[in-house]
Amino acid sequence: MRAQFVLSEIGVGLRRNLTMTFAVIVSVALSLALFGGALLMREQVSVMKDYWYDKVNVSIFLCNKNDATTSPKCTKGAVTGEQKKQIETDLDKMDIVETVHHETSDEAFKHYKERYGDSPIASTITPDQMPESFRVKLKDPEKYKVVATAFAGRDGVESVQDQRNILQNLFDLMNGMNIAALCVMALMLVIALMLIVNTVRVSAFSRRRETGIMRLVGASSFYIQMPFIMEAAFAGLIGGVVACGMLLLGRYFLIDNGLALADKMELVNFIGWDAVLAKLPLVIAIGLLMPAVAAFLALRKYLRV
Question: H-type helices in the chain, by residue range?
Fold first, then answer.
């Protein structure tokens, strides 16, 4: 097979079907950009979970004298010194517990004033209204239920709360956005495949005389099909490169500059450039192989020798 002939045929095909080739490039670029974005979104959720789950605590809130009339779990009155000592002792004995911090009512009131001091209700809160609590850091945050089962309902305990629940809604939202991106990506991928097949068909039809002559002189199926497959692969490669550029620009403008989310959301641990760069070879490989395979399957019917 002469490489010069194949390259010339690729150039002819691209010029004859310039509009459809451009449509293929755009659709492949958009679908692969969404694919790469979905992969990065999933990694971002995983990074945020690892980052925040390592910092959240299980809070064991204790009964105070005000809870005796307002909470059905504190009908026996405020927690006693003996009950607090027993709870702390039991926590220290648990293998899954890493650290235990006892927060007094005064400390809880101080933290509340620091966070919500400007709210109208803050002026009506007094230290004795704030519950004491044990802030428990677990070695494995997923084992929250072990602590909840051991202490929920115990005398002197008003409630056991897992701070992960505060973050779960955010993670659910991000996962939902990720699923939506994957659905749009699948739709764009179908459109790209249809365009690729149609482009190959049009290109094969416009060169039916050349392929007929090649059949007569005994050219193999692979030799006849190669220019069409290379055209599709070339268009897909350009689309993959464009998708990589979109991912890089998206990371740059969303996180580093433009919206500058890294500066505005300092508590969020964003994925780095290494995560984005690691996805680019996969995006380019799919952009190259997907159109080539689609063209090969389409040509099996239209260019049989």
Answer: 3-16, 18-53, 67-70, 81-93, 105-116, 144-151, 164-206, 208-216, 221-251, 261-264, 273-302
What mean pLDDT do residues 50-73 have? 76
Give the confidence band of 194 by pLDDT, cuts at 50, 70, 90: confident
**Cα gap 4→90, rounded to integer Å:** 80
CB burial class (10 A; 0-12, 13-18, 19+) of residue 133?
buried
- Nearest CA to 244 out of 278, 196, 270 is that of 278
Beta bridge partners of 159: 61
- Specify the residue for token string 């994957």: 182
Give the residue with greater pLDDT, 59 vs 19: 59
Q: Are 34 and 188 in contact (CB under 8 A)?
A: yes
